[in-house]
Amino acid sequence: MDPISSTLGIAAGVASIITIIGKSVCTLNTLRLKYKDAAFNINLLTNRLSIVKTALVQVDHFVNENLEHEPQHLQLTLDLDESLKCCGTLVEHIHDQIAKFEWDDELLRLGRRALFLLEDQTIKDLMMHLDHHINALNLCLIAFNCRTPNEQKRFLNREESRRVFKLARDDTTSLIEFRDSISFGTSARRSSIGSQFSKTFEFDGFLLRHKIYQNTFRSMLRRVASPTENLALNIKSRTMSETPPISPQSDSKTSALIDSQLKEDGRKMKREIKMLAMGDRHGRSAVVRQMRIKFGQPFTDAEIEQHRQSITLLTIQALIAIVDYVQHSTGFISHLIKAHAQIVRDFVVQGAPDWTVSPEVATSIMQIWQNWHVKQAYRIMQQHGPTAYFLRAIERVCHPDYFPSNMDIIRAPETIDTVKETELTIDKATVRVVEIKDQNAMRIMPQFADVHFCVFSIDLTCYNRYLDDEDSTNELFERLQYLRAIFRSKFFHSTVVLIVFTNSLAFAKQIAESPLKSHFGDYSGGNNVDAAMKYIIGRCKLMNQLDRPFFWHCYDFAARQGDGELMADFFRRSASIVGTMKRLREIGLGPKSDWR
What we know:
This protein is an alpha/beta fold. It has helices spanning about 5-35, 40-65, 75-100, 115, 120-145, 150-155, 160-180, 205-210, 210-215, 220-225, 230-235, 250-270, 280-295, 300-330, 335-350, 360-370, 370-380, 385-390, 395, 405-410, 440-445, 475-490, 505-515, 530-545, 565-585, and strands spanning about 270-280, 420-425, 430-435, 455-460, 495-500, 550-555. It folds into four domains: about 5-185, Up-down Bundle (I/LWEQ domain), CATH 1.20.1410; about 210-270, no CATH class; about 270-300 and about 420-585, Rossmann fold; about 300-410, Orthogonal Bundle (GI Alpha 1, domain 2-like).
């Protein structure tokens, strides 16, 4: 293979994909303003495309710096070329889809093509495919950093690496089949970066406007317009050659079935509760996960595997950090422990993407963990956080056959990039919980103006911690400022705020060792836990300058495994009180402020 030709081909492919992504993002930004009902999903897709673009820019940089001058990267060149072709096909498909939108100023209506293209399941599928291609591109970027061509080849030929490339390739294969199956239904011209998979002709549009074609595809188009997934599963799709002539009677039955299903969807929507989860990331995620274990769908194998990998990585990185702390603070690290630490460090560098601990690495981890100086350094850590929790279980977590328990999943590190949605069923009502990160909260808050509840978690033990910023801001003070922004937001004027205080048991122990008054000068309750809680709740009330309804609850997932039921009861009581207060206000009897 000519290295210069391959480098130019890869660079051209990267440039073409980046150009298409730029057009898609521009179109999506316009759609966000026009289709307000789908702005949330548009944001998700835009963010994921931006991540792909960033990875491609890095690939382009490495290609120009390395491949042109080092022609021995044969395996990497082949894998990168295939990854770019697959990524280009997916990006082009996404661009083709969003280019079909109807342009007017209306909101999305039932039966609109845009509603189908931006429904939740479609967005989830597209983001899953994009994630697979992001993983493949990241794998190529890691391979660029290998010290020798042989090491690079071994890394790329690992079973885990081939699995990542296969996922991206399989996604593209299924996408090509899907595009071929529907190509007769579109007049969009496709200029593929790779090959022309779906040929279209100038007379396609004329033929498909004929009455006989319209009659044949009527039921199919109505199914596309329906947001109901169950109906799509019940009515099998048929190709052109398999579809018999549709009689008026069968067409009428199909329409009646669709109408019935739409009415059922409407009834479900009336029973649906929308909830936004914000605040401290560990507390927020722990609340949602424990509620899901009790009232939601079981975690999938892929989700459990993702949590296993994140837990393993967190635990090992924490152990290495302790070793570094001991070495720099005391210097009491033997040569044997240093050798074991190097084995673990090598695993951290080369362990991606599956993070499966080998028996050799597990032995080194336990040798380090049993060191007296390491144990002493661990004891001065905060013992209530997820890091300390997994270090206490390090023998189980770093076993080659480790499988996360429910409590492990509850305490696992956060795994969301921007937002994550969880569906629960409580008392026959559907509760949709959306988690968002703090750094994204204020920017995308307008997308959640119709939520019924906003769950805001506050870690009680954060009162003596400070941010690493210019002002050394107290973390609890920062939490309160976020809470004030929520109370004052015009988008949450009818939203009930549910404040969840986490780590209450650790707070009771910590306040005796680190007085609250040392960090909040106006506090005068000493080491009394009840007085400290009353003070913090009072500070929360001061943030509520517009007298919005809010409730609070102390939650400690370390205390009871069944706390999910208590959280559900907290939601029920809050909802019932809000309903009662609203009815009293409507008849002029309710006070302006009577929230707990």
